[in-house]
Amino acid sequence: MKVNEPRHSIVFVTMNESGARPLIDTLRQEEFAVEVRNGNHEALDGGDLRGAELLVFDRGRFSLEELSTFPRVRSVYTGPLMLLIEQIDDMLQVLLYEQGVDDLLVKPVNHLLMLARIRALFRRNGRRPTPENLLFNGLEINRGLRRASYLGEEIPFTSREFDLLWHLANNACTTLDRDHLYKAVFGIEYNGYDRSIDMYVARIRSKMAPYSNLATVIKTVRGTGYLFAAEH
Fold first, then answer.
1. Segment 147-163, tens digit of pLDDT
2. What is this structure's pTM?
3. Can the keyword Protein biosynthesis be found in this entry's annotation (predicted)?
4. Per CATH, which fold does 133-228 belong to?
């Protein structure tokens, strides 16, 4: 994967985050941007799914009474949906596919098989093209010109600041960790202690602070990284 290429974003819903940690770590090691939500489908209530390119539900045993979960999810999300589940018979598999599940894997999940199936889902659904121009509540970010402006007034970002802003904005509504941002902006692996990303975020915020619509557009996600929260 090229450093400047936006990653596929995955929302991973689980009721056992510690048990799912090896799967989540595998996805992140393969350069997927993973947001973990704890709970069942209710973990999605009020959550913004516009940045999600795949939903993964990690479940235990599944009963017929729970089939109503997926029509509710489909009312707010139209992208690919994968289910990780324990012990399932053929009839329940048929019903799950009919209720909106795109793919399912029986646990314990083989990591290589999971990665192959996820990539196949992305191939079938296609990848959104990377835009040259982003618009958010009066903020315009033009990648070709490397120019950012608010209602026509240019905001003077440095090259590094622009790279970071573009990457956050192009992955809007997705939490990006410092490891990913460091590699995207500097082209090398994060060493675990350098605070350059935090410094550049502070500078970007300072330059956007005079504009009321932009003052809080970059959110800090404690213990993880940053989220660009503006709406198109």
1. 999 999 999 999 889 98
2. 0.53
3. no
4. Arc Repressor Mutant, subunit A (1.10.10)
